[in-house]
Amino acid sequence: MAGAQNSLSVAERRAQREAERRAEEERQRAEAVQKAAGSGFEVAIEELANNPRNAREQLEGLEGLVGTYESVGLLQSVAAIPAEVFKAAFPENADEIGDARFVVIGGNRRLAAARLAGLEKLPVLVNRKATTRKDILVAAATENLSREELKPFEELATIEELKKEFGTYDAVAKVLGKSGGWVSQRRRLHNLQPEVRQALEERTPGMTIELARQLGTIKDRDEQLAAWEQERALAAAREAEPKPDKSRKQGSAAKKAAKKSVPKQGRASGDELDEATKARRAACLATVLDFTEDASRLHIIALQASTDPDEAVALASQWLGEAGIGASALSLPSLPGDEDKGRQARAALALSLAHCENHMVRNGGNDAAHTSAYLDWLGTHSDYQQADDAESALTT
Predict the structure, then answer these.
(1) With contact defined as beta carbons under 8 Å apart, do 180 and 170 qualify?
(2) CB within 10 Å: which end of the chain, N or C, has fewer?
(3) Residue 383 CB partners (closer than 8 Å, separation 6+)
(4) Which residues pair with 43 in a beta bridge?
(5) Is there a contact between 298 and 352 (Cβ–Cβ < 8 Å)?
(6) Which of 116, 122, 72 is closest to 102 using CA atoms?
(7) Are 85 and 93 a contacting pair, CB within 8 Å?
(8) Which tens digit of pLDDT belongs to each residue from 253-280?
């Protein structure tokens, strides 16, 4: 049974999740406003100083905040510490603080936008527990990381600064409440060649943070650049491909002709696949790109599919490569030390879809129970829709 979400497109479900996320952020802002109002603590804006050690190199997106603040004021308090505490911990930055009463360690972008909007006072939550150099650095890092406000290289700079204070990367992971793998994934950016680093900073088409971290495992300059050029070429080729017209349905005569052209053993190339299989596999790729829910039902379905494991890995690797995640997520030697759980979840999703796909091609859709369960899952979690006049759930 396809469920209630079957009528929603991937874009609509993404918009729904975004609306839920924004609603949760608004709830948290309301709680912060209520807390600030309860303490009745507002500070004149000229008494607040930006944190000179803020990891954010650029304060972007101020225009939108300025418009909001001009209309309704600041909805969320900024986090700050007393200026004398900050100066004692960082005497080298004392001149930059000047005569300010507090130093903002969480909300520097909000402070900058409030100044541009002409606000006179801001609600402030004062952190009086952070009194040492280490405490302040951890408090500021936690604030930025929890809001996902840092860019990849700003995250790396934060980790390196904390490492200077705490001695080891394991200690950094511990104070941030992160795993060692989370820290090591970000440290891979150290190894990026300037050209690759620039591509990540400029968000060049084909570049993702996941790909950048993967490229960071390649120490040889020429090999790393060659791998990036290959990925960029693949991205350009995908972008140039004509988008499938999902509104057109294949006629029965064309289906029969396509069925005859595809080998029964499921080793067909992309050009030899029939239109139904192409549409289904396009839905699989879209799901690998977009799916963020629990995939347990799909994994159960996939475990009951009889197929060649090497073929499944090959197909899953193709999808992971096109999604910018990288086929190395399926590499068995890398699994014991790879703690990037999100990337592994994507790999498991792609592999389960590949098992189901190859099973259907190999069996020609004759395994009715498996076909029904797989197509139900795919239809529920993607835009894939089976043609109304199809003789079976899938023919190849």
Answers:
(1) yes
(2) N
(3) 9, 10, 246, 283, 286
(4) 122
(5) yes
(6) 122
(7) no
(8) 333 433 333 333 333 444 467 888 888 8
